[in-house]
Design a protein that fits this description.
Layout (H helix, E strand, L loop, with lengths): L28 H10 L4 E10 L4 E6 L2 E15 L5 E4 L3 E4 L3 E19 L15 E4 L2 H4 L1 H8 L15 H22 L5 H8 L1 H12 L7 H7 L4 H12 L3 H19 L4 H7 L5 H12 L3 H7 L9
């Protein structure tokens, strides 16, 4: 699964040469993993336990990222755009973006669901290079001390479920740690795509990606991005596709649409204002791009948007 869904769109890009063409230095794999895990940071938005009887199924939309840990039983999980994946006690499922989650219990089953979001103003991190979802089987066997933390995650982070000062901060840091441990194990078990580490390895591509994330309203050209990456246009375009898995224009559209969905969820904005805030000069152009990406026009998506994830309260 690609790190971001490919989006076909018609966007004009200027052509020019800029910068230098030196090849990126190769880093030690352990250093790459350290850098990748060090860039990950999340704010906790909710924790809850889910109990399912044999044959029961839940189907729920979630905003943001999160993980589900199977504490007992067995069944299967299906996330947006994927097939059913068998899961059982001890497995951990990590989801890195907005998603619809279906869980089916083939035997009485319990899960701990944790939801989190990127801190405000957060920079591009290695999490952006991950697939939309990944399953770490037998997580409990490999990381028993971590699963003890997950088992204790309840609303308010206390044995009695009572709120204490600093609970949200502590839970957020523990959730970030748990995710980092899961990703390390994912790599160690041979599941991690080389492309994920390539993104960390090539900071110049990361510089261009950071630029797009920091200013969605700018009319970015390949030339502009190549300058940020201090590469020639042709070398940058080829390297970007190699590392990210798509073109700069398609990636820019994808993150604009992600920002648009977030604004539709959290703010009462008109389509005109929304188009402007994510870099489109016309309502029609924005609406066409949004429909290609989500399957519906902005106004329809707003009425069908997922309910917020449970809060830490």
């Amino acid at each position: 699964m690609n790190r971001i869904e490919m989006v076909r769109n018609r966007m004009g890009v200027d052509v020019a040469e800029a910068g230098v063409t030196d090849a990126p230095a190769t880093m030690n794999r352990d250093d790459l993993i350290d850098r990748a895990l060090g860039s990950i940071e999340w704010d906790l938005t909710g924790t809850r336990r889910v109990a399912l009887h044999t044959g029961e199924l839940i189907d729920q939309a979630h905003t943001g990222a999160g993980f589900s840990y199977v504490s007992a039983g067995r069944g299967a999980i299906r996330l947006s755009g994927t097939n059913w994946t068998p899961i059982e006690a001890g497995d951990l499922v990590v989801v890195t973006r907005d998603h619809r989650r279906r869980i089916r219990a083939d035997a009485s089953m319990s899960t701990v669901d944790v939801s989190f979001s990127r801190p405000p103003g957060g920079r591009h991190s290695a999490i952006d290079a991950l697939p939309d979802s990944l399953v770490v089987h037998r997580f409990a066997d490999h990381e028993p001390h971590m699963t003890a933390l997950i088992d204790d995650m309840k609303h308010g982070w206390s044995p009695a479920g009572l709120r204490r000062r600093g609970d949200a901060v502590i839970c957020g840091r523990i959730a970030t740690t748990l995710l980092s441990v899961a990703l390390r194990l994912w790599i160690e078990l041979g599941c991690g795509a080389d492309r994920w580490l390539q993104t960390v390895e090539d900071p110049r591509i990361g510089q261009a990606v950071d630029g797009m994330h920091s200013d969605l309203t700018r009319t970015w050209s390949v030339d502009d991005l190549a300058r940020l990456a201090t590469m020639s246009r042709s070398a940058f375009a080829a390297r970007f596709r190699e590392v990210v898995g798509t073109t700069p224009a398609s990636y820019l559209t994808a993150i604009r649409m992600e920002a648009a969905r977030e604004l539709l969820r959290t703010e009462d904005v008109t389509v005109t204002e929304l188009a402007y805030r994510v870099g489109y000069s016309s309502d029609a152009g924005f609406s066409r791009a949004f429909r290609r990406h989500t399957g519906v026009v902005p106004s329809r998506w707003r009425t069908q948007r997922p309910e917020p994830s449970p809060s830490v309260a």
